[in-house]
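Record format v2
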Amino acid sequence: VSPKATELTKRLPVNGVSAARSASMMAKVASAKARNATKAALPFPLTPPPVPAGVEPREKKSTTGADYDTDWARSYPARLARVMLVQGLVRPAVKAIASPRVRGLDRLNGLEGPVIFAANHHSHVDTPLLLATIPEPRRHRLVIGAGADYFFANRLTAPLSALVIGAIPIERTKVTRKSADQAAALIDEGWSFLIFPEGGRSPDGWGQPFRGGAAYLATRCGVPVVPIHLDGTGRILRKGKSLPQRSVAVVTFGAPLHPAEGEDSRRFAARLEREVASLSDELYSGWYEARKHAHAGTTPPLQGPDTGAWRKAWTVGDRTPRRKRKATWPEL
Amino acid sequence: MPRPGFVLDVDRSTPPVLFHHGEGFRLEKLPADRSRIIYPAEPIEPIADPVGAIRHALANPLGDAAPLAAQLLAGMKLTICFDDISLPLPPMKRPDIRQMVIEAVLDLAAAAGVDDVHLIAALALHRRMTESELRHAVGDRVYEAFAPSGALYNHDAEDPDNLLEIGTTKHGEVVEINKRAAESDLLVYVNINLVSMDGGWKSTATGLSSYKSLKHHHNVKTMQASTSFMDRHKSELHHSNWRMGEVLKSSGVKIFQIETTMNNNVFGTDGPMSVLQKREWEWTARDRMTFLAMQKGLDRISPRMRRQAFQSWKAPHAMTSVQAGEVDAVHEVTTANVFRQHLVPVEGQTDILTMGLPYISPYNVNSILNPVLVMCLGLGYFFNLYRGKPPVREGGVLIMSHPTPWEFHPVHHPSYIDFFEQVLSETTDPLVLEEKFEKQFAEDEWYRHLYRTSYAYHGVHPFYMWYWGSHAMQHLGRVIIVGGEERSVRRLGFQPASTLQDAFEMASDVVGREPTITHLHNPPILMADVT
């Protein structure tokens, strides 16, 4: 070893430790060795037994993701806590950030029992916005289908999602009956269910095709689906942004839809999507024009124009909801 | 099962009875063994699926009319007219029946691709409806779809460019209605029948007309010959409207009439106001506490706050029937459905009729019940709530309870102020004031301007209110108002009394010491079927 290299080695921080520090490190290593020795000395069952050689160890059962158990979040103390959180925190925050305008609530008059709320999805603001605007008493007896891979990914977000928004995990990445069975059981118990049938937030400001989950559950449980159109939440917190920006959100509730005789989930989901598109059209063209478009089958689709991605992105900004006309005196 | 209305004979065990008293109440003991109380029926069962019922009615019209969908064609001119703020009373909780019906009609029009659609509030000479009132009536969706482009508006009975003279009846009555409505390929009228007076040809022949046309039936002679105007077949007012309807029909105006009826669930079956809808002996401890708290609370707030509190009440009325098609056929069924809720069989007449007047009439929604309207509500509407003959004998006494403050809404009722100050100070005789003052008020440019551009009732409207009570004035020997402001009551030509007992004492001059008494326990609305 050259003298130059020896000098460089001495100057490296890891090698330049003081004698005291070196002693402390030695002590730590000794203590760890002693602990291991004690552990090894304790007999089974005080410590886990070793896995016999040649045996395949069992896979550990997951407690997060789609396997997260949310039953506790529907106990009375948890529900009470959620009511307080929603009323005391979520609603004021939504009011401050999104100044929501709610339309079409009269369409829910006379509706009894649990329902499935199905909304388009632009933003993380959508869920608190709906928690703040879905009318009572359903607001406080509501479970929300949330992506298991996102909201229930770890031991921190899973209980928070279950407690604050009353979420249950929905498997998005693989086909499984577990999520559907759990949602159906809750609907049968009288809980209303909020789901975003697009399966995730919009990546470009336009909608995505509706999946069949809401339609399947409605058919299976015999409950109506209330289509909801959300507008403006993309401006508040679109996908990819981390900080919200104040803007106005419009929530339009549609008339409850029932699966028709012999209608399968796929066709019902398509009808549901058309209905949400019509609610969007109602906001941009006015109710009567929207009805005319709906009857003529010319309702603009939620997915936007069938063009390239950049042109779709450009046309997002072209849409403006109809504004209220200023009151004027009649002209004579 | 809702219980029907009935007549209670008062005896010593009968509890004090509720009298509405403007924005307040009185509990009064009626003399035993010679008094009776007519109680209204409980709210009848509403239609479980109103939207479905409306669609069914549009698809299965009555009389000689094709289903609405078959009458709607792309390229046609469609006008939808609807009743104004005077119906229903009190205004109903959202969604209003008009909204449900208009949305169903427009949905069919949208399916047919009809572009040229106008919506008109058929208010005749009433005040224009404000934006919030229109929104409440037709719903936000319809309002926002049509109002911004100017296709939803109030009828203007003083706009010569938008009125069309259709013709003249065989009695020489001029028929003039809204030009747009008259020239449309189809006129759809959306009605709410709160009482049996509403609907039929009165909807179009009155609601869409002008002073020129209205004066033929809104006059003293017609009103005195209408016994009562709640009974179409004995109402000269309706005969005139029906003649005008014949002219409309023969001139080719194509009308598709949609009429609805509602139950008399005015104060709800639960909640703080429900006590006002219960029979006194059925008030629970909670009802009694609520009533006392309400009465004490109302005593402690200003009249303005009291008015605001009452005017903000939205009644949980619910639809009991809907029928559509040809006017006459529809109205027959409608009237039967109104009577199903309102009629209470009553035997014979009494010497005195008592009534407690509530805070609302058709002409003071979101406004003030001024003394002229007090007269109209009592002698016009409540007195006429009978079929057969009035529950009080000719020459009998009417005792009403209302504070009757000398107070007017300056925006809504400007001509009422002058009518009260100038006309009634000179005469209360309907024939004299009609002859001497009506034309001057009807043609006053300032009132005309306020009617057209502000939210004022037409200049001639207070006269009509007075004529409305002319049949009662002719029939009665005396009118006494209990608890009313003395100078207002005297200006109306009536007698003020501090208490009901004082009023009975004053009435004894006319009907003797031991008169028989009928109390009309209204609202909720009832109609005495007197035999």
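DSSP finds twelve helices and seven strands in chain A.
Residues 281 and 290 of chain A are 5 Å apart (CA to CA).
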